[in-house]
Amino acid sequence: MEDFLKEIEALNHVTAIVGDSGVFSYADLYEAVLEFSSLLRSTLVCDSSVLLVDDYSMGSIAMLFALARYNNVVALAVPAGDAHVESLARAAGCSFVIRGSSTGLPKITTRDVSALPPAIERLLTKRATGFVVFSSGSTGPAKGVVHCLAPFLRQYLNSEPCGVMLAFLLFDHIGGLATVLHALFTRGTLVLPRERSPYEVNRCIERYGVQTLHVSPTLLNLALSSDSFQLGEVQSLRRIYYGSEPAPSALVNRVKEELPLVELRQLYGMSEIGVLPCVSRPEDSSWIKVVDPEYRVRIVDGILQVSSPTNLVGYLAGAPALTEDGYFITGDLAEESDGFFRVKGRDTDLINVGGTKVYPIDVENILKEISGVLDVVVYGQPNPLLGQVVAARFSLSRHETLDSLKSRVFMYVKGVLTPEQVPRVFSISEEPLHTARFKKSRKLNSIPGLVEPG
Hints:
The protein is built from twelve helices and 27 strands. It is an alpha/beta fold.
């Protein structure tokens, strides 16, 4: 961190962070880090577990860097109610809670801690700076994932420049942290949106000349469906990194058609492993290959395993799924071809129809091609005879009865999908089919507007 601060001190008036709250140079960032470092020294915030509650801002980023200077392990959280903040602080054994402020200095409060989670204690014993992200819990309860910061700093110091980059993924998300480090550690400019919506993405591209996006496929689909990507307004855009969930091939092809001069690159990352340094196959960006020899992947029994410097130190509670030789078992279904791999979804999302495995992404790819379908989520519906059948929940561009939709779907998929892949349970949603993090979820109790019979 100290080497980075020395370098940005010399960048002077180069723009580091920009948004509706103002334009901030690297000199401004450097001065803010020094100011917050002084505050932390005076309040003895060092060698501790700390909860940082804030969203993207000049202050939150400067505080994050200041905390890193003093060997703290920083748990990241976006603003929420007191009870939720206290539960996160308790889970991470935090001695301090720091709440950001848009009008003055951050508020620092102390907490009594009886015991530290073992993963955090290991880092603090070694005086190693770390951080904690809380997973979205797409396959179960949210988990606190503990990381050492140093490998992430090395990774992004050696990354390719991104130019002007939009900070779309949430501040407390592993992809959000990667966005901050990628933009600032390659001397780029980080653009802070005022909200998270397709319209805001387009506004920021137009106003600030965004060159790089790091977004989810769900956000891309929403942007294209709402005509937010107006070709005359995104001329600055050079590359789109997409990840966090499998991307339907129809969506990727449509982005290529709409934005032929923009490079598409699939990324692979998880809260437990960070974002892997990958390149995409030129003819099909859904196939990716790791390009750094320190990062290794393999597929065992159809499940992707990863060994990397940025693998987690551990969870706040429970042991990670590691092999004897240190590979993290991701739980993602994957396939390999000529050194490239492609993720097809979570193993928990796999639908077992009478012994036949059905991948939701394969069915979604076909259903998305049907006229009037804005989005669709495919999931397994329990069935007493077959174990499960395929269910599909649709978001449509116009009003349509369920009977009419069923008829059109059956006609379209005849001879295209196998009998096991054909949806047997249909529903139509009036709400978007994504979470607050712009990511699909196939758990029955998290699909918007869906009430399953008991």
